[in-house]
Design a protein that fits this description.
This protein has 10 helices and 5 strands. The protein is globular and about 50 Å long. The longest helix has 49 residues. 46% of the residues lie in helices and 8% in strands.
């Protein structure tokens, strides 16, 4: 009699070994995938942390007042605007937009919150930084304009403050600035910068006369424009004084000075020619 019930299947030894090997492979594969997942997650966390650090540092360094949303946005756009600092030589008169910081200048010209002020700064030894600081203080806290924008249209000897210390050392810029400036002191931020920025009435704080410096004003949103014509004239003066160790041509020396403008400076074709552009869009002239 034939039974209709199914016959139980018993695997042989080879099949058992194959099944065990397959299970071991799957277990090992899951372990590898788990490790890769953990590694990827750790990498993502590390990358996110690395990206967050510059943003946090930028946030800590700001001195713009609460409510300055437009000014903060302008600062971010200016930080992202390209600056060409790889010139080999430059002409006496700039004729093409790529020869100056056109994008950054356009951002400033496009800034619409009012009031806005353009300072005609020419004397490194004058009270220009103190006056700009006072204007910011009055506009922000007295007249309640947190988005107030102050622009330094810098030329004359004041332009010397917008070169880095390497240029001061190489070209003995003290000889152009005067004996009072053994180093580029306007670019040195004072100890008062570390004081509590929430206390704007602190007579020894970052908003006081104890910190009349370019870095402090930049942190407050002020923009410092660098005049190409002044750079050209400084190069001519250095050649005349025979302070030209590399024996560069006039255009090449002016290019080197341009390449060593301090971070954040906005190169313009000329100060006196750019001031009307600023006035046409609503900037108030100050000197």
């Amino acid at each position: 009699m034939v039974s209709n019930s199914p016959t139980a299947y018993l695997p042989n030894e080879n099949e058992n070994n194959q099944a065990i090997a397959t299970m071991n492979f799957i277990t090992a594969r899951r372990g590898v995938l788990r490790t890769l997942a953990l590694t990827a997650a750790t990498g993502a966390i590390s990358l996110a942390s690395a990206r967050a650090e510059p943003a946090a540092a930028a946030a800590e360094s700001t001195l713009t007042p609460p409510g300055a949303t437009n000014l903060d946005a302008l600062k971010r756009r200016l930080a992202q605007a390209p600056r060409r600092r790889d010139f080999k030589t430059v002409p006496m008169i700039l004729t093409r937009q790529e020869e100056w910081d056109h994008e950054a200048l356009t951002e400033v010209l496009s800034y619409r919150p009012t009031p806005r002020q353009a300072w005609d700064n020419t004397d490194i030894g004058g009270p220009w930084l103190n006056l700009m600081r006072n204007a910011l203080n009055s506009q922000i806290w007295s007249f309640k304009h947190p988005d107030f924008l102050a622009v330094s249209v810098t030329h004359g000897t004041a332009q010397l403050a917008l070169y880095d210390q390497a240029m001061w050392d190489k070209y003995q810029l003290t000889q152009l600035a005067g004996d009072e400036f053994k180093t580029n002191t306007p670019m040195i931020e004072r100890k008062s910068a570390a004081a509590d920025s929430s206390n704007y009435e602190n007579p020894a704080g970052p908003f006081s006369g104890e910190d009349n410096s370019i870095p402090s004003l930049m942190r407050r949103g002020a923009v410092f424009m660098s005049c190409h014509n002044a750079i050209w004239e400084h190069a001519a003066a250095l050649i005349k004084l025979d302070i030209n160790p590399d024996r560069l041509s006039h255009g090449a020396l002016a290019a080197e000075l341009t390449n060593h403008l301090v971070d954040g400076a906005v190169l313009i074709p000329g100060a006196t020619g750019t001031l009307p552009e600023l006035q046409q869009v609503g900037f108030h002239y100050a000197t």
